[in-house]
Input
Amino acid sequence: MIHILTRDLRLAIRAGGGFGLALAFFLILVVLVPFGIGPDATLLEIVAPGILWVGALLASLLSLDRIFATDHEDGSLELLATAPLPLEVLVATKAAAHWLTTGLPLTLAAPVLGILLNLPAGGHFWLTMSLLIGTPALSMIGAFGAALTVGLKRGGLLLSLLVLPLYVPTLIFGADAVRRGIDGFGPQTPLTILAGITLGTLALLPFAGAGALRVNLR
Amino acid sequence: MSFWEYANPRRFMAVTDRVVGPSFVLAGVLITTGLIWGFFFTPDDFRQGSTVKIIYLHVPSAMMAINIWIMMLVTSLVWLIRRHHVSALAAKAAAPIGVTMTLIALFTGAVWGQPMWGTYWAWDPRLTSFLILFLFYLGYMALWAAIEDPDTAADLTSILCLVGSVFALLSRYAVNFWNQGLHQGASLSLDKEENISDVFWFPLLACIAGFILLFIALVLLRTRTEIRARRLHAITLRERSA
Output
């Protein structure tokens, strides 16, 4: 399990792994938004939590198809499936590796990018907190989607169609937590529900993902 | 004689052959009666005027949109547990009908919303969750269309349907949390003395029954088509190998 994790991390970080890609995408998205809606500081202040959350969500979507597709192509997925490790653990480990290479960097970069969008001072802490709690759910849901579409030739677009509706609850509670933190209401309620979603997906989706993988490897 | 005997495609074809026609006719009669009764023989609402009459299309289609997803969930479970092919094909056949019902509900709602709320669309919890349901239907159908091997497709879409159901339910409550509603609460329930005035209630009941029958007829017809397509495929394969 540790070996798979370190192997995935090494593959992602080295050349062609697309490690910085999600971060660069996130940066470009945040830079593009003011061009789209104008440089008005008060307006940016209002939309900042939502834009940052949507940006993080789209950026983590970018690298989803890499979770299983590259391993499927070179045959190592079959080897991993026949290994003594349960397939459920494999799915969870893959999701963890995806989170470490996208979710965690995005969480750390978001407060810095928040300055570009004029995010109010009180929001930075809650933005980091909500992303830290919420992005593991994004990676886990994404790993499930990737397991569903692993056998398809051009699964990338289909993957986003399948996964994005599943992201809705996470996005709602995540962005709402930041907004409440800025307005001075207690963001504890959405944060708790967000944590519930993350824990729920971590507990259940490895089984669904492993089921999908078994079907695809049949 | 158990319920599962209908899982045999031959039996299924024989029984549905007799059921499809009558249910189409009955659905047609009920919907026509309900609509004509509702449109021409009920009074206008004293505040909403004649716009209230969209209820005869809006409510049945919205009910069916949700119930068809539940039916797909049940048939997906039957496929995953008991591996009856008819069940998987019925789920596949139901999805396009469900997406159409969702569209009808969204469209009639928008048409009614323009004079009543002053807007075609509002980010109201009910409206939003229907839009999300629409997206779930689209994803489900896209996954069916993308996979060539029918058994793999049935397995994967069933898993998606199970996971999707949980998330659809979660989204339903999430959007409640996210925004306050403009849409009225439920006005039809079984435990109340009178929900809406009987004048509107009986034609509406006819329309709801008609929509249910229409769905049954359509889903059986589409399942029969799927079974025939599957048989045709098997025959061509046999011809080619012979």
Observations:
- The interface with chain A takes residues 132, 135-136, 138-139, 142-143, 146-147, 152, 155-156, 159-160, 162-164, 166-167, 170-171, 174-175, 177-178 of chain B (CB under 8 Å).
- DSSP finds six helices and no strands in chain B.
